[in-house]
């Protein structure tokens, strides 16, 4: 019993740290001073190199669980993740990092709807209500802000929605990858991402200084290899409910960092929309029933 408590406590700390670290991704992308395609290429290439030794150490287990079909699905999911990053990082130039991150959290609803169409999973009526509330929150965010930037913000939100849709697709594909060591999945995904983005990078024209290289390397080592390991390690120790609640730390961390480094303050209207999205996201993840209804 004592061991289980220590294990759960350790998992909780790991997930909390992972979500707080995730909140700084946008900051590092902007501070790297590079085009999104370059950032994604180096993020994939560096993470791939970091994870490779671990995969070689567990090579036998990886081979035993591998099939050509699963390998193909891993490559596809990797491409989804990579282009999800490219669209999201491009949105940072049109939208504040904090708002982009908050809108990105509509992915539970995309997964919910996609699961209903792809896997014929039944959607509970309460989940449907949470989805509607999240959509209202999204409309609230779109409806506020500086009118002169409305078109640019709208385009940024469109890129974020496209990004989170691709991420949701990678999550659905993960259902087909049972039995494969998580870090091997990360290795294949980042390798596929590095190969896919190399042709569209502008490495020959980029001239990052020492500080920018530090941000680029950190995105690969800390925000990809280490972060993925931390999340997978935490998920194996704690329940889904704890994971869902701790996910709140991601956008909160982003909002704080966005304020400290870019002086961006979310307006009252945007805050209302953000809370509707985040609370609804947790409601879907935890299958909360509406307080006035017997719906499940």
Q: Which short descriptors sum up this protein?
A:
296 residues, mainly alpha
List the helices and strands and how they pair.
Elements: H1 2-22, H2 25-32, H3 36-57, H4 59-64, H5 68-91, H6 97-104, H7 107-118, H8 125-142, H9 150-174, H10 182-197, H11 210-235, H12 240-246, H13 249-262, H14 268-286
Walk me through what this model shows.
The chain starts with a helix and ends in a 10-residue tail after the last helix. The protein is mainly α. The protein has 14 helices and no strands. The protein is globular, with a radius of gyration of 19 Å.
Into which percentage range does the β-strand content fall? under 5%
Q: Count of helical segments?
A: 14
Number of strands: 0
Task: Give me the strand/helix succession.
Answer: HHHHHHHHHHHHHH
Give the class from helix and strand content and strand pairing: mainly alpha
Helix content: over 70%
Indicate the low-confidence ranges by residue numbers: 145-149
Shape: globular
Average pLDDT, all residues: 81
Q: What summary fits the major beta sheet?
A: none
Q: How much is the radius of gyration in Å? A: 19 Å
Distance between the termini: 32 Å
Summarize the structure.
The protein has 296 residues and is mainly α.
